[in-house]
Amino acid sequence: MNASLWVDPGLCEGHALCIELAPEIFDLGDDDVARALPQPPERSWEHVKAAVDACPRQAITFQTSAKGPQQ
């Protein structure tokens, strides 16, 4: 299973709840916008999903695919 993660910089307001929930995946840039590892390790999915759910602006997109990478 593959996962893809993205934080929309136009929606993120820097509340940093994602960083509290998954600090190994998210960080806050100098512009107070969260950034994420685009391909989080499988062991972190539970925390990533919690961060997606906690984001007050719904700025985090997390998609999984049972297929391999598209070519």
TrEMBL record:
It holds the Pfam family Fer4_15. GO terms for molecular function: 3 iron, 4 sulfur cluster binding; electron transfer activity; iron ion binding. The keyword Iron applies. It comes from the Bacteria. Keywords: 3Fe-4S, Electron transport, Iron, Iron-sulfur, Metal-binding, Transport. Its cofactor is [3Fe-4S] cluster. Ferredoxins are iron-sulfur proteins that transfer electrons in a wide variety of metabolic reactions. PANTHER family: FERREDOXIN. This is Ferredoxin. It comes from Mycolicibacterium mageritense.
